């Protein structure tokens, strides 16, 4: 199993959002969700929330969570 086959760590996802000037809480609220809702995507398969994060980061969803979106 190579590095590209591993899901990003939650800290990396949060860090990438911060690098782009946002926060997980702000991203949740801007999508009409409760402040901590998107945190669920960091630990369990939540397609709707994963898509929001992926689109914000402009990174394909299968790159962030390859174990959840195997080709």
TrEMBL record:
Top-level taxonomic group: Bacteria
Keyword annotations: DNA-binding, Transcription, Transcription regulation
InterPro entries recorded: Lambda_DNA-bd_dom_sf, Ner_HTH_dom
Pfam families: HTH_35 (PF13693)
Entry GO MF terms: DNA binding
Domain Ner winged helix-turn-helix DNA-binding: 7-71
UniProt family annotation: Belongs to the ner transcriptional regulatory family.
Protein name per its UniProtKB record: DNA-binding protein
């Amino acid at each position: 199993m190579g590095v590209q086959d591993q899901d990003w760590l939650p800290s990396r996802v949060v860090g990438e959002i911060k690098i782009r000037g946002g926060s997980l809480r702000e991203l949740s609220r801007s999508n009409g969700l409760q402040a901590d809702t998107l945190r669920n995507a960091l630990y369990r398969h939540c397609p709707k929330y994963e898509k929001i994060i992926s689109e914000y980061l402009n990174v394909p969803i299968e790159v962030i969570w390859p174990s959840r979106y195997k080709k």
